[in-house]
C-alpha cells in the first residue's frame, strides 16, 4: 500500500498529528526565544521533518519541486562537506522559526476575520468617494495587512471588486476595479517595509547580526511612506489621463469614519504592547510578537463572545479548537513552501560560502552603498524567476559581508532588504499578493505584476535607492 492510500485511510489521524506537530513547533520556538533553551529548537527542527512527512499527500507540483530541491541540497552537503549535519540542523532551525512566526500571526488573523468591526471598517473604506478612495484603500491595505496579512487583500480586494460592479460602463468598471485593487496591494506591500508583524522584519533581523527592529523602524517607515505617496501620485496622474469621468454610485447609506476606530484601536494597542514588552524584556521584536500576538488574539476573541461567562468560555473554546483542528491544517500548502524556502535558502547560501568563500571575498572590498542599492534591485529581479522574498532573503542575507567590515550599521542592511522585499512583492507574478490581486482583477499574474505595477516598481526602486543612501549616511546608526 503506497503512502497516499495510507494517508487517505487514516486522514483524521494524520491531521491530528499535523496539528500536534505544528503546536509543538510553535511552543518550542517561543520557549527557546524567551528562555534561551537551545534544546527546544532541536525539538522544533526534528518536528519539522515529521511534519513534512505527514504532509506529503496532495501537494502541488511546485511544492514537490521545492522538496526535491531540498533533498538535492542535502545530498550535495554530504558530498562536499563534513559539516553536513550542522548545515541541515541549522536550516531546519531557521525553518521552524518561520513556521512559529507564521502560526502566531494566523492567531491574529483568526481573531480579526471574525470581527464584525473589521468587516464594517473595510466596507466603509471601499465605499469612499473617488478623490479619496485610493488613499483610503491604501490606508486599509496597510493597516489591515498588519492584522490580517494576506487576508487583508482578500477582504478589501473583494470589497473593492464588488464596489466596481456598480459602474455600468464596462471600460470605466475596468479602470475603477484596477485603481481600487492596486491601492489595496500597494498599501499592503508598503506595510512589509516596517511592521514587526511581517516576515520581512522577522526574517531579516534574524539573519543580520546586530540588527534590530527598533534601530531600523524609523527609516523603514519612511520607505513605506515613499511607496504610499508614489502610488497615490501615479494613480492621480492615471485618473487625470482618463478621457471618461468615473461617476459616483454611492451606497444608499454611507457609514461614518467612526467605523475606522476599532481598527485604529487594535492597531495602536497591539503595537504599543509589543513595544512595551520589548522595553521590559530587552528582547528583539520577533520573539515578543510570537508570544504577545496569540495572547492578544485570545483576549480579542473572548471580547467578541462577551456576555455570560459560559458564552465567553464556550465561544472562545470553539474558536481555539477551530484554529488547532482545522485552520492550521488548511495552511499546509503555505507552510510547506515557507519551510522549504527557508531551508533551501540557508542550505544554498551555506554551501556557496563553503565552496566559493575565496571567490566571494571580493564583496568585502565593494562600496557599501553599491551593495545596499544592489540588494534593492536584485530581490525583484529574483522575483521574476519564481523566487519568493523569503527564499531570496535567506539566500542573499548570509552572503552579505558583515556590517562591521563594510563600515555601516546592520540596520542599513535591514532597510535595503525590506525595500527589496516590498518591490519583489508588488512586481513578481509568483508572490501571494500579486496572485490574489490578479484573480480579483481578472487578469494574469504577469499582467498584474509588470503591467499594473511595472513603473511603480522602477520609480519606487529609484526613490528607495536614494533614500537608503541618505539614511545610511545620516540617519541609521
From TrEMBL:
Membrane-spanning parts: 12-35, 41-58, 65-81, 139-160, 181-203, 215-235, 256-277, 283-303, 335-356, 368-391, 412-432, 452-476
Signal peptide as annotated in the record: none
Keyword Membrane in annotation: yes
Keywords: Membrane, Transmembrane, Transmembrane helix
Organism superkingdom: Bacteria
The name this protein goes by in its record: Uncharacterized protein
Taxonomic lineage of the native organism: Bacteria, Pseudomonadati, Pseudomonadota, Alphaproteobacteria, PS1 clade
Amino acid at each position: 500500500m503506497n503512502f497516499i492510500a495510507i494517508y487517505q485511510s487514516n486522514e483524521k489521524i494524520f491531521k491530528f498529528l499535523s496539528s500536534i506537530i505544528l503546536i509543538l513547533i510553535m511552543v518550542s520556538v517561543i520557549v527557546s526565544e524567551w528562555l534561551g533553551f537551545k534544546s527546544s529548537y532541536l525539538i522544533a527542527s526534528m518536528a519539522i521533518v515529521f511534519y513534512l512527512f505527514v504532509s506529503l499527500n496532495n501537494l502541488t507540483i511546485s511544492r514537490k519541486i521545492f522538496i526535491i530541491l531540498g533533498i538535492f541540497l542535502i545530498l550535495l552537503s554530504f558530498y562536499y562537506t563534513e559539516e553536513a549535519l550542522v548545515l541541515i540542523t541549522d536550516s531546519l532551525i531557521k525553518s521552524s522559526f518561520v513556521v512559529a512566526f507564521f502560526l502566531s500571526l494566523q492567531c491574529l488573523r483568526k481573531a480579526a476575520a471574525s470581527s464584525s468591526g473589521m468587516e464594517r471598517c473595510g466596507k466603509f473604506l471601499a465605499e469612499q468617494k473617488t478623490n479619496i478612495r485610493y488613499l483610503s484603500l491604501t490606508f486599509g491595505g496597510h493597516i489591515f495587512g498588519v492584522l490580517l496579512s494576506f487576508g487583508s487583500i482578500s477582504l478589501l480586494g473583494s470589497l473593492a471588486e464588488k464596489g466596481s460592479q456598480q459602474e455600468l460602463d464596462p471600460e470605466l468598471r475596468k479602470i475603477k476595479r484596477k485603481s481600487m485593487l492596486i491601492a489595496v496591494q500597494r498599501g499592503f506591500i508598503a506595510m512589509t517595509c516596517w511592521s514587526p508583524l511581517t516576515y520581512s522584519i522577522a526574517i531579516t533581523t534574524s539573519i543580520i547580526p546586530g540588527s534590530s527592529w527598533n534601530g531600523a523602524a524609523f527609516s523603514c517607515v519612511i520607505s513605506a511612506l515613499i511607496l504610499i505617496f508614489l502610488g497615490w501620485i501615479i494613480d492621480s496622474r492615471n485618473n487625470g489621463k482618463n478621457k471618461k469621468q468615473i461617476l459616483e454610485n454611492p451606497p444608499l447609506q454611507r457609514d461614518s469614519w467612526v467605523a475606522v476606530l476599532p481598527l485604529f484601536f487594535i492597531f495602536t494597542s497591539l503595537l504599543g504592547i509589543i513595544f512595551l514588552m520589548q522595553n521590559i524584556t530587552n528582547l528583539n521584536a520577533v520573539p515578543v510578537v510570537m508570544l504577545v500576538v496569540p495572547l492578544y488574539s485570545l483576549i480579542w476573541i473572548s471580547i467578541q463572545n462577551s456576555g455570560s461567562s459560559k458564552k465567553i468560555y464556550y465561544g472562545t473554546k470553539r474558536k481555539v479548537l477551530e484554529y488547532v483542528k482545522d485552520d492550521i491544517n488548511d495552511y499546509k500548502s503555505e507552510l510547506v513552501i515557507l519551510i522549504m524556502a527557508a531551508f533551501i535558502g540557508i542550505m544554498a547560501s551555506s554551501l556557496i560560502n563553503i565552496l566559493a568563500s575565496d571567490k566571494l571575498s571580493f564583496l568585502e572590498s565593494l562600496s557599501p552603498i553599491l551593495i545596499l542599492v544592489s540588494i534593492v534591485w536584485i530581490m525583484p529581479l529574483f522575483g521574476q524567476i519564481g523566487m519568493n522574498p523569503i527564499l531570496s532573503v535567506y539566500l542573499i542575507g548570509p552572503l552579505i559581508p558583515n556590517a562591521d567590515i563594510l563600515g555601516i550599521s546592520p540596520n542599513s542592511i535591514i532597510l535595503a532588504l525590506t525595500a527589496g522585499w516590498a518591490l519583489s512583492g508588488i512586481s513578481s507574478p509568483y508572490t501571494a499578493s500579486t496572485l490574489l490581486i490578479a484573480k480579483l482583477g481578472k487578469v494574469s499574474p504577469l499582467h498584474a505584476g509588470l503591467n499594473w505595477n511595472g513603473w511603480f516598481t522602477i520609480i519606487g526602486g529609484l526613490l528607495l535607492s536614494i533614500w537608503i543612501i541618505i539614511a545610511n549616511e545620516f540617519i541609521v546608526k
